[in-house]
Every structure is written in C-alpha cells, then in structure tokens.
C-alpha cells in the first residue's frame, strides 16, 4: 500500500486554511487526541475528548465493533455551542457521524468535523487513500 508521510510543516501549513470558528473542539480518542491538540492550539480553543471507536490501534487496524461505539461516557458541556470534532484518519466517516450524533444529543448548536487524512468529514486536510504516517508516530 502507498504511504503518505506527513511532517509538521505540511500539517501546520494546511491548518492555515481552516476558517472554522467553533466554541469548543472535541477530539476523537485515541487517534484524534494529538491532531486535536494541534488544531486547538492553532485556533486557541478549549478541547475535550469523546471516546468512540470501531477499530483497534494495530497496523493495519482491525475491526473490534460492528459499528462505532461510545466506550466512555461523554460529559463535556457542549450545550448551545458550535463544536468542531477532530480525528486523525477517516475512511468512511462512520465514527465521525457517531460522534456527531452523540454530541448533538448533548445540545450542541452546530457540529462540524475535521480529519487530517481521508474522507467523510466536513474538512479534510489531506485527501488520499494512502496509509498516513504522522510525525508523532516516529
């Protein structure tokens, strides 16, 4: 499989094009935590985590649930807020959709999604089917 090796310079450059103005940023735990921290710093936002997953952390990832599953209670205060969900990779958008649904249940006014690599999000920094390698994985 083809690989896409991303450096911090490319990631930070692509984030300059993000024009979202959310009130809070929600990371999809586990893979989205570092990307979300980078985005939160760039956009000067508070950050919380939603623990939802369908695959394990192996390479290549293996499916552990039939559908994305909330693995810890979500308790961030998003009521009436504009939310930006951030994850590292999205293949289908199913995990993002599940996270979005859960956050809307908690009263968010608006929910948008951002992924560093893949498809199925409102904002995709790098659209590719290649296997991504991030600088924090070295």
Please supply descriptive tags for the structure shown above.
single chain; 138 residues; alpha/beta; Rossmann fold; 6-stranded mixed beta sheet; two-stranded parallel ribbon; 3 helices
**Euclidean distance between termini CA atoms:** 19 Å
The CATH class designation is Alpha Beta
Largest beta-sheet details: 6 strands, mixed
What's the total count of β strands? 8
Structurally, the number of domains stands at 1
What CATH architecture do you see?
Answer: 3-Layer(aba) Sandwich
What's the average pLDDT? 91
Query: Strands of the biggest beta sheet: in what spatial order?
Result: 4-3-2-5-6-7
User: Class by helix and strand content?
Assistant: alpha/beta
Commentary on this structure:
The protein has one domain (3-137): 3-Layer(aba) Sandwich (Rossmann fold), CATH 3.40.50. It starts with a strand and ends in a 5-residue tail after the last strand. The mean pLDDT is 91. It has 3 helices and 8 strands. α2 (33-43) links the parallel β2 and β3. It is of the alpha/beta class and 138 residues long. The strands form 2 sheets. Strands 4-3-2-5-6-7 form a 6-stranded mixed β-sheet, with helices on both faces. Strands 1-8 form a two-stranded parallel ribbon. The protein has helices at residues 8-15, 33-43, 94-105; strands at 3-5, 24-29, 47-53, 69-70, 82-90, 110-118, 123-126, 131-133.
